[in-house]
């Protein structure tokens, strides 16, 4: 089968490998689509070399068909599935607290463990979730980032009537905006990339574009109070510096972006308005189930987010393109191409 291997910073190589064999409790999947996300771009730049082995296979945003499943697992050949790309211990304090996705021994498929950038993939059936056959391949491939969004919005307890500000209108920011809107919140997204600004507007999302003072805008928009929830999805120092200023008394700042460097945060508003700052990282099973419902019902439209579909052989170029920015949103790898 074909697979793509991480060869070190800045380099992917597409080659061949033996077809994987299922071990006890595993199914073999025929992978159809894999999304490229911010984490993958960090891998590509060598930022996660302490986590990913050389020759490792990335890809954690996956959609696949079951090629072969053990009897009695409830899965059959041809079933459409997404994969919760986590391995956890079920024994540590975090797992016992009910947050196995933050397990102290967590391993992520597509980082520490082989991911989906291979034609066939052996995965424990316990980590597979069925999706309706009515969902298109491209839409199903966006369920993983949608589960990040349902988890983030749920943790921040976004409610009907809330005012929500999202810093960063990439795929995750757009999904957080749409999930918040579906919950009945009013939403604005701060974004500077003109391609993304137009795309968000096309989804009916109000955008605070470049050159606008976003804190002033958000303050005026809420009658001088500040927003109920601000999501930081940029990873950018300028947004981090502003985020606490935009939030009302007892409001919430949610940090979704991956920050690999220390950032300056204004703590005076954090103190003066008794803000809550929370992190949000992965997802629980209920977040996936909510994501699948929102995708299947069309409540959160996913198609417009997919800006490019490339073959596995194009991974290197796709990474470079995604890093350059410009007219790009979600890039999917089509393993069937
Ligand atoms: Zn991701
Ligand atoms: Zn654990």
Q: How would you describe this structure in keywords?
A:
Quinone Oxidoreductase, Chain A, domain 1, 7-stranded mixed β-sheet, 6-stranded parallel β-sheet, binds zinc ion
Question: Could you characterize the architecture of this molecule?
Answer:
- The protein is α/β, with parallel strands linked by helices.
- It has 2 domains: 174 residues, Medium-chain alcohol dehydrogenases, catalytic domain (Quinone Oxidoreductase, Chain A, domain 1, Alpha-Beta Complex), CATH 3.90.180; 126 residues, Rossmann fold (3-Layer(aba) Sandwich), CATH 3.40.50.720.
- 28% of the residues lie in helices and 26% in strands.
- The strands form 4 sheets. Strands 3, 4, 5, 8, 9, 16 and 17 form a 7-stranded mixed β-sheet that branches.
- Strand 1 and strand 2 form a beta hairpin.
- The radius of gyration is 20 Å and the shape is globular.
- The model has no long low-confidence stretch (mean pLDDT 96).
- Bound molecules: zinc ion (2 copies).
How are the SSEs placed, and which strands pair?
Blueprint: E1 2-6, E2 12-16, E3 26-36, H1 38-44, E4 61-68, E5 80-83, E6 86-87, H2 93-97, E7 107-108, E8 120-124, E9 128-130, H3 137-140, H4 143-155, E10 163-167, H5 171-182, E11 186-190, H6 194-202, E12 206-208, H7 214-221, E13 227-232, H8 237-243, E14 247-255, H9 268-272, E15 276-279, H10 285-297, E16 306-311, H11 315-324, E17 330-334
Parallel strand pairs: 10-11, 10-13, 11-12, 13-14, 14-15, 16-17
Antiparallel strand pairs: 1-2, 3-4, 3-8, 3-17, 4-5, 5-9, 6-7
Helix pairs in contact: 4-5, 4-10
Bound molecules: zinc ion (2 copies).
